[in-house]
Amino acid sequence: RIMANATFAIVVLLTFLLFFEQRIQVPVWLQAFGRMHPLLLHLPIGLLLLATLLVFLRKQFAGSSWELLISFLLHITAITASVTALMGIFLSREGGYDALELSLHKWFGVATCYVAAALLFIKTSAKMFKPSLVAGAVLLIVAGHFGAVLTHGDAFVLGPFQQNEENDLAGENATAFEAVVQPIFERKCTSCHNETKAKGKLILTSYEHIINGGKS
After folding, report:
1. Is 201 left (phi over 0), alpha (psi -120 to 50) or beta?
2. 31-41 pLDDT, tens per residue?
3. What pLDDT is attached to residue 83?
4. How far apart are CA 10 and CA 34, in angstroms?
5. Taking residues 104-126, what's their average pLDDT?
6. Which residues contact 36 (CB under 8 A, 6 or more apart)?
7. Is the pLDDT of residue 184 over 70?
């Protein structure tokens, strides 16, 4: 009951903040709270996917143990998802993200939070529970995808293949920058400073972008 009430209160606060998002001035202590978003988000991801898996393995559990376990997982998922979404709102106010990708990540994340909260009330409905659970898992995966794009860029997964192709093409004609400096930036810096995600408006994927500098 405590977790359900806390989830409801956070969802109401989150909805209020979404309406007045552009007017929010985030104080320093809330900025630190917002930056915990990447730390906490793995909990609702794992818990919601685990709950979805267990629902389809219902026959493997005896007696009332399944209902107790699913109820516990759903309550933990709902409260961690709502806190994660709240952190994300505060973190997004710092800027430095692509507007479209940020918007998609935010709204899919908020939708996941709402579905996780709604599951607490419809878990006894045989017709609505499974479809809602699957919908929540799909929303979660899509939100996670756009979150990964925000954090690492849209070529993060296939990046090693692209880098190998570029290295093969460069060969002996590579400049000192391309051969020595740029690989360091690619390993350490370009996940946050690239054309699709330019933290501080700084792009480190090419010599020309580096010379142009960033916001400061």
Report:
1. left
2. 888 888 888 88
3. 94
4. 14
5. 91
6. 87
7. yes
Mean pLDDT of the chain: 84
DSSP 71-136: HHHHHHHHHHHHHHHHHHHHHHTT--S-HHHHHHHHHHHHHHHHHHHHHHHHTT-HHHHHHHHHHH
CB-based burial, 20-33: b 16+ in 10 Å, e otherwise: eeeeeebeeebeeb
Q: Closest Cα partner for 214 from 205, 198, 202?
A: 202
HSE at residue 17, side-chain half, CA atoms within 13 A, is 22
> Residue 134: what pLDDT?
93
Of all helices (H) and strands (E), which one includes residue 186? helix 182-188
Q: What is the dihedral of CA 122, 78, 134, 149, to 10 degrees?
A: 150
Residue 90 has pLDDT above 80, yes or no: yes
